[in-house]
Amino acid sequence: MDLLPSPEQDEIISSAAQFLAGTLPVTRTRQLMAEPSNVDAKAWTLAAELGWFALGLPEDAGGVGCGLADEALVFREIGRALASGPFLSTTLAARVAVFGDDPAVATAVAGGQQVALGLLGSGASIDPTSGAVDGDLQLVDAAESDLVLVCAPDVASVLAVSDLERVDAVECIDPATRLSRATARNVRPMVRVTADVDPVGRRGAVLTAASLSGIAEATRDISAAHATTRLQFDRPIGANQAIKHPCADMAVRAELAWAQTLFAALATDERREDAEFHAVAAKVVAADAAERNAAATVQVLGGMGFTFEHDANLYLKRAYVLAHAFGETRDALSRLIRLPAAS
Predict the structure, then answer these.
(1) In the 8-state DSSP scheme, what is residue 310?
(2) How much is the pTM?
(3) Of 56, 59, 309, 339, whose CB is crowded by the most CB atoms within 10 A?
(4) Are the C-beta atoms of residues 222 and 229 closer than 8 Å to each other?
(5) pLDDT digits over 194-234, tens only?
(6) What is the distance between the alpha carbons of residues 127 and 260, in angstroms, rounded to a whole number?
(7) pLDDT tens digits, residue range 64-99?
(8) 295-332 in b/e burial notation, b at 16+ Cβ within 10 A?
(9) In this structure, what DSSP letter does residue 197 have?
């Protein structure tokens, strides 16, 4: 298994980074915090035109035909750039519609119709056969979404937001993310797909891990840059072990997170028997790396890191939000014990 990017993948990385830097830099994310929607309409339309929401779809379904590893490259850049909007849930919902045989929904979502992410609350469930959802949900980025994606390891469903009850906006720890609470009363999906047809939940865990890896890398770079340019007693603070060692730890965590994430993506692309194990492991490792790197960056930056004006706190808050998507860490660790791993 080759973990080095091909020339084509280097082009994906470069084009995604350039697009985000030009249309959705962190400064734009900050502007959107005060607006009703956290989605930049122009950037969203351009992303759809570039095929981001159809990147992993089969060519015969109107997609680009790339693998999960290629999608992970894009989502790493999204995490690094702190771009706001339901990129993940929209991308996965297009896949549910394609493999659930609903071409109308697939075309609409791949073309840019926004889809919120629904997280199952305590006691909530999704029927593994029918895909019906029952219980309390947390909706991520549902401000302008008529659809919501709800995933479990064995099934993924796309519901109509209008079928949910008591949809109320609540404050999110990440000011660039919109959060709502809702209740589903045995809501049947518009379209659903089981994991034996297409493992959407697994793909969601890998792409979430990719965004978390991007956060781990971005905060590592912020710390390293500050450690080499901030002077005390005419010396860079990075010369001190109290700064040097945390920066080295950040570099190791970021590298491990991305290596595990990319391995998990390739394991799914190659249909390995241990693909589920590596996907769950990637989410655990990447969430740990992103949270710890972002927290360490706040400390390396000293007093400046605690201020809202610096981006370090935004990376930390985004890491906390993403860590709850596609399985809590506690549940993921218990699943790892039961899942088959490579011998």
Answers:
(1) S
(2) 0.95
(3) 56
(4) no
(5) 999 999 999 999 999 999 999 999 999 999 998 888 767 77
(6) 30
(7) 999 999 999 999 999 999 999 999 999 999 999 999
(8) bbbbebbeeebeeeebbbbbbbbbbbebbebbbeeeeb
(9) T
